[in-house]
Amino acid sequence: MHQTVYLVMAIVLVGRTCLNSPFVSGQETSTKSLEAELTDVGGMLMKKMMPVASELATSPELSPECAGSLFKILKATRAREPWAIRMILANGLLPNNVLEGSLISLGGYEQCLKTRVFNSEGEVTHKGQYCSLFVYPPWSVIETLGRLNPLTVTTNAKIGKKALRIGLCTLNSCSEDEIKFLAAGVFKQYGANTTVSGCRTDDPKELTKLQYASIYYLSVLGLLVLIGTLIEWIVMTLPAPDMEASLLRVWPPLRWLMYFSAISNTKRLLKTTARKENQNLVFLSGFKIFLILWVIYAHCYVLIQPEFARTPFIFVDLSEKVLFQLMLNGLLSVSTFLFLSGFVMSFLMLQSRAVVRKQNPIGVYILAAVRRYIRLMVPIISVVMACFLLPHFADGPADHELLQQQVDGCIHRWWAVLLSFNNFYTVDKMCMIHLWYVSTDIQIFLVIAFPLTILFVWRVVETIELVYFRPFTHVATYVLGVVVGYLAVQYGKAKIGLVMQIAQWIISLALTGFILFITLPWNRGNPPDDITTAIYGGFHRLVWSLGLVWPAYACATGRGGLLNAFFSWKPFLPLSRLVYCVYLVHVPLLYLRMGILKTHISINEFFQLNTAIGLFGMSLFLAYLLYLSTEAPVTHLERLLFEGKRKDAIMNSAKKPADALPAKMPIVEWETKKDPLEKGFEIKLTIETDAKKMAVKESGVDNGAFQADSEKSKL
């Protein structure tokens, strides 16, 4: 009989056994008894399996407990015991959409793990154990599947390189190695190779020492936020201004604890105004929001295990759709962020070149690099520490695969992240694959920032030429942004006619549209020749970035029109400050999704878009927690470390206006110095005396261009 018939009959038998009564009480039926039919089927299966089981059970590779459990299962199946039927039905069968590329049949994960075998005294003697069985079928089977599929060649090529993944439910008397031996013994007679992995029961997972350390670390951060918030709340309730000043003078660490206050940090986060001189960069906030949405949407397709797709061949159909090219070209968001990073750094440094020129360029460069590293790396440390806990919460057939692979990369190569060397490892050895971009960003900054600093001391044209033509793919895109930032500041007021502006918009749309959709005919069965492929691979990022030149220049110089007005919408400002944290946390959430997945993934545009939007919302919440516990406090502490005796005004924002403080009391005001995305700050230290007021401004190393772009999304 066909396996489906067996399945239906077994389900009926389970229901019959559990009810132990006629299907319709009080009525006689003239239908044939399914129990009798299944008894015959069970007898036939016993005749087939008993010789194999007897041969394997006597092997020295099996323990007596494992061998005994084999006969126990066969005997219980023949006797139609509920636990045996339950366990058999929890096994995976032939994948439903095997001719559409589906190679997995996960079976009943929860049903298997909840199976219990009781003795006569009601004690549990055995538990269900779930394993993943991988079967590599012989080529003859692949050819048969190919003949059943009109796309014979495609089917053969794709299935032949993969294994059939089947959920296997056994008793916990057998170890994973013993199950491997049993599976090999059953399938070798058919010429198929097998392997088994991921065997587990529903016993609680034990925390490792590293996971305990992660819990302590995250608990300390949470406690600091709670204490800082409580202290600020108490300070806000003080009846007199001089009491606050006295309190902080008596015990200065109170000020440090207030760096973690959720009150002040949330106020800063929700600020929707920008300094007048930075209005030209407000458009970046909305731009970054849509870029991170693009990144998340693409990752929802990419960061999965393809075999879990319900119909993997659907990717071929989707690739022929026009809008799906946005997903296929999602990596262009890398070029976009690099372009914007270079643009912002150049724009801001040129705005404050008078200050920078007074500083030692080498000192400015070193200090700027250190500060940027701190602001980028400390949030990553918190995310990685949290990721160590993900395997404890993941519970699914594949929780030991993609998710564990990424966590193991952090366990064994954490130092590569700290040294910004993570992007030199292969994907399967990286610590959280998306952190490669942070390493790339830091590396490019180290290469570009120093010559850009020299640019303010030496001649401009020669320096730009030296930097612009460096033969690095990503660096070229970054430097193109630097050039555009230079043009926006130096020639922002240049007269450009309406016709020329319209032409520039058309050219930009043509370049970006060309790069996005040139892949459409290739995905429809008309692949390019080798020369075209080489040209596209070498220049498509640069051409895409060229398409961004005019929009960035136009928005920064007041020529953006409706586009600039839309991206400059005030509600985008608070969200944009969380973009970097959103990027850091959304990928671990996708890995966690794979770790808890117990069924197929429906590869459908609507479901994937729905997933992306939901993931964005969840990531925003976690990003806010990361901002409160790590990013905002690090910003304050980093300033305290590098600005010496300069004081902090977080107290002032808590309660009182400046004029409420006593005479000769330092009044410190934190003001956004650069763009509204909080990448740098101006510090005004106003010392009130009886005779005069003195204002001291920060040095060039505090220029926003050198600050870590910690709100910027990374891919």
From TrEMBL:
<dbReference type="GO" id="GO:0016747">
    <property type="term" value="F:acyltransferase activity, transferring groups other than amino-acyl groups"/>
</dbReference>
<dbReference type="InterPro" id="IPR002656">
    <property type="entry name" value="Acyl_transf_3_dom"/>
</dbReference>
<keyword id="KW-0732">Signal</keyword>
<feature type="transmembrane region" description="Helical">
    <location>
        <begin position="606"/>
        <end position="627"/>
    </location>
</feature>
<feature type="domain" description="Nose resistant-to-fluoxetine protein N-terminal">
    <location>
        <begin position="63"/>
        <end position="201"/>
    </location>
</feature>
<dbReference type="InterPro" id="IPR006621">
    <property type="entry name" value="Nose-resist-to-fluoxetine_N"/>
</dbReference>
<keyword id="KW-0472">Membrane</keyword>
<feature type="signal peptide">
    <location>
        <begin position="1"/>
        <end position="26"/>
    </location>
</feature>
<feature type="transmembrane region" description="Helical">
    <location>
        <begin position="578"/>
        <end position="594"/>
    </location>
</feature>
<feature type="transmembrane region" description="Helical">
    <location>
        <begin position="496"/>
        <end position="522"/>
    </location>
</feature>
<feature type="transmembrane region" description="Helical">
    <location>
        <begin position="376"/>
        <end position="394"/>
    </location>
</feature>
<dbReference type="InterPro" id="IPR052728">
    <property type="entry name" value="O2_lipid_transport_reg"/>
</dbReference>
<feature type="transmembrane region" description="Helical">
    <location>
        <begin position="282"/>
        <end position="304"/>
    </location>
</feature>
<dbReference type="Pfam" id="PF20146">
    <property type="entry name" value="NRF"/>
</dbReference>
<protein>
    <recommendedName>
        <fullName>Nose resistant-to-fluoxetine protein N-terminal domain-containing protein</fullName>
    </recommendedName>
</protein>
<keyword id="KW-1133">Transmembrane helix</keyword>
<keyword id="KW-0812">Transmembrane</keyword>
<feature type="transmembrane region" description="Helical">
    <location>
        <begin position="542"/>
        <end position="566"/>
    </location>
</feature>
<feature type="transmembrane region" description="Helical">
    <location>
        <begin position="444"/>
        <end position="461"/>
    </location>
</feature>
<feature type="transmembrane region" description="Helical">
    <location>
        <begin position="324"/>
        <end position="350"/>
    </location>
</feature>
<dbReference type="Pfam" id="PF01757">
    <property type="entry name" value="Acyl_transf_3"/>
</dbReference>
<feature type="transmembrane region" description="Helical">
    <location>
        <begin position="215"/>
        <end position="234"/>
    </location>
</feature>
<feature type="transmembrane region" description="Helical">
    <location>
        <begin position="467"/>
        <end position="489"/>
    </location>
</feature>
